[in-house]
Recover the amino acids of this structure.
């Protein structure tokens, strides 16, 4: 249990600062005077860091060692936080975001989650419930982090106060490295690089799921927490204080729904739970910009979050059904890379749309993409798993 508890602690610590940074970073860039297009580009660089890290994990994770990989990425978080604290120029900020592995949402698609969700089925007999707890901890911590993002507004809303928050991010990198140093149950039995240990059938599943998850992730990139945070700022003039409260509520609702997901899946199955709850959430997502008022948009956002992430632990449990222990981390890393790549256009498209006044576009396009994904994955796998 020590191993899985360490993973839970790492998850909570990491998503706490990710929840904080995903709300704070786009507002920080806006307050520095950068236009919506560069705000979107900043979020783009965050996603690129997840892509590059997952590619490194896929090809060299077993060779270098998963433990070493996690320590390296944790150390880069610390360096990133220090750079963001010390610099206001966009090139320096871009470099920091490229090495940050910040999540732009309450959930993650970076290398930390790829390894942790790949290892949890090995450490727990109740895979679905363990993954539910893992994601519940993540969203709960992210909700507190989102609230913490509003702290500078209580300190005069100065740039100095905002920049100081990045030192917290840097400190968490040190904490994560110390956690991973003490863990000895992360490694694969195979030390081969690349895909040599992956069977032919598993490679076909990885390819198919990468395409399907990319469709979903493209829609998600248009409405990531960072984008939605900036959208409320641009559309309704929401302050950093209000955004902290908004995303506290959003992540609390999400965390509570995560607990219910494995229980529903035990009755309906992982695939059906993934698809049914996700379609409902996508309908609410489309309604967010159509409300016309801050409270109306917030209501639909909360309704969306009440089901939108139920597919996260069930998707991870679904992956555990499809792949063996040796294949799982690599499958997670590759499909997460596909997810991250597919989110890349999202923030720039959303930034341009917001900049030219097409405020409804990110939500309409995002919701439509997600519904397309739900139908495609259900009809692709309904005869193999429930």
């Amino acid at each position: 249990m020590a191993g899985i508890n360490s993973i839970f602690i790492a998850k909570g610590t990491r998503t706490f600062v990710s929840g904080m940074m995903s709300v704070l970073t786009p507002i920080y860039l806006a307050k520095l005077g950068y236009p919506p297009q560069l705000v979107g580009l900043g979020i783009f660089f965050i996603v690129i860091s997840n892509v590059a890290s997952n590619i490194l994990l896929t090809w060299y994770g077993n060779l270098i060692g998963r433990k070493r990989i996690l320590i390296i990425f944790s150390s880069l978080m610390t360096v990133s936080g220090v750079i963001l604290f010390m610099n206001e120029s966009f090139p320096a900020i871009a470099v920091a975001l490229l090495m940050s592995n910040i999540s732009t949402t309450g959930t993650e698609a970076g290398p930390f989650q790829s390894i942790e969700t790949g290892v949890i089925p090995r450490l727990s007999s109740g895979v679905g419930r363990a993954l539910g707890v893992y994601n519940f901890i993540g969203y709960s911590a992210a909700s507190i982090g989102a609230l913490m993002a509003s702290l500078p507004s209580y300190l005069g809303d100065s740039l100095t106060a905002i920049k100081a928050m990045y030192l917290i991010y840097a400190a968490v990198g040190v904490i994560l490295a110390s956690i991973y140093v003490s863990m000895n149950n992360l490694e694969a039995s195979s030390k081969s690089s690349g895909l040599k240990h992956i069977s032919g059938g598993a490679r076909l599943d990885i390819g198919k799921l990468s395409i399907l998850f990319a469709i979903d992730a493209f829609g998600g990139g248009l409405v990531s927490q960072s984008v939605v945070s900036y959208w409320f700022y641009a559309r309704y003039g929401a302050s950093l204080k209000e955004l902290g409260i908004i995303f506290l509520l959003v992540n609390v609702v999400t965390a509570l729904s995560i607990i219910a997901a494995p229980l529903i899946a035990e009755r309906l199955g992982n695939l059906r739970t993934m698809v049914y709850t996700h379609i409902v959430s996508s309908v609410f997502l489309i309604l967010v910009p159509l409300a016309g008022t801050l409270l109306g948009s917030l209501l639909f956002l909360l309704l969306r979050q009440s089901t939108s992430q139920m597919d996260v632990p069930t998707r991870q449990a679904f992956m555990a059904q499809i792949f063996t222990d040796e294949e799982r981390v690599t499958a997670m890393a590759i499909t997460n890379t596909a997810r991250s790549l597919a989110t890349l256009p999202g923030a720039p498209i959303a930034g341009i749309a917001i900049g030219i006044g097409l405020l409804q576009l990110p939500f309409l396009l995002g919701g439509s993409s997600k519904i397309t994904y739900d139908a495609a994955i259900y009809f692709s796998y309904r005869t193999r798993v429930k």
Q: What stands out?
A: The mean pLDDT is 88.
